[in-house]
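Sequence of Ammonium transporter (Deinococcus irradiatisoli).
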Amino acid sequence: MPTTSPHLKRFLPLLALSAGTALAADTKPVLDSGDTAWMIVAAALVLFMTPGLAFFYGGLTRAQSVLNTMMMSFVSIGLVFVLWVLGGYSLAFTEGNPFFGGLSAFGLSGLADQLSGTIPAYVFVAFQAMFAIIALALISGAIIERMRFGAYVLFGALWSLLIYSPLAHMVWGPGGWLLSMGALDFAGGTVIHIAAGVSALVAAFVLGPRIGHGRTAHVPHNVPFVLLGAAILWFGWIGFNAGSALAANQTAALAFVTTCAATAAAMLTWLMWESARGGKPTAVGAATGLVVGLVAITPACGFVSPWAALIVGILGATASFWAVQFKQALQADDALDVFACHGVAGIVGALLTGAFAWTTGAGKPFWEQLGVQALAVLVSVVFTGLGSFILLKLVGLLMPLRVTPGQEVSGIDISSHSEQGYAETESGLSAPVMIGGD
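Predicted 3D structure, token representation.
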């Protein structure tokens, strides 16, 4: 992989980072307070994305399952961060073999006072933890309203350690197989969005459809929640993409601009397709389109020019829009279209990264880079799809995956959490439940 391009310098900390080591370079790295401050803010922005996802998903589901849907995102924060400290980070970012790292940084041992490039290693650990958190949370949108909460937590723990961390190592870790081949993934198109989208589709297959799926319409219960969640995601995604430069520099600035350009183009494209099909431009469509644009540009944001980012957004939104229209052909009840919006857009974005990397001088020659990107996509699809199927079957041997039919029909907030998002008022309207107050 060429390392002379300024857009590839962000990989240097990943190549050299291991427990107890600093960036291998001619001069000893020096902590930069500006870079450190920016990366702490970026990590906080990415953390904020997961509550944003909870609102986005929660608004799209039924009112009687809103808490369970949102809880799947929130529990991912606690679950994955604990696992990341214990072993997830070490499996992803320490030296091991081309497919997974070792356990030299188990419990984050050996990282005190170490640097990752110009930032403390602990800051890099925290930043990457936020990626691992939202990757798991994304999957939940496919299996809402029917998966047992305990089964989701167990599957999520196994998925984070055995699928996410090894894939992150292959793409970003020192000696990673796909990284050594020159695969480009600036902020997680393959590691997060393809992985989550494919895993979500497999989970939908294994669980089976919701009761009444295909016979009754599932209407979003709170569109303002959807818009709020989408807005938070866009805001947090600035840290997600621009933060992946691992410094406050020109590459971060490029990622900021390309992220917004692709997202704006994707949102307009989605509304155009809605109108072209004889419908009206909808708020849910606008929210979905902008999320798809964010997904599509994620692997490319630091490697392509702003004008190329507009094309990435347009093509990503077009592919995902039509994937949603024909999702019944998959015969899987992917409830919130996680595969169409994250898997498909992630695949398109990963391939277009190879197609447009030349616009900034990054990567290999056109056809060679496109071939490497296609291989990275294939590996991500096969590894995450097969791995998720095995893990779900394993969890199914230990406990039931689905709630009972009665719980599913009535909504699973009460049965899973002994709470509900809304209570019936005397006027028959829904009002928020007040917990622990007058």
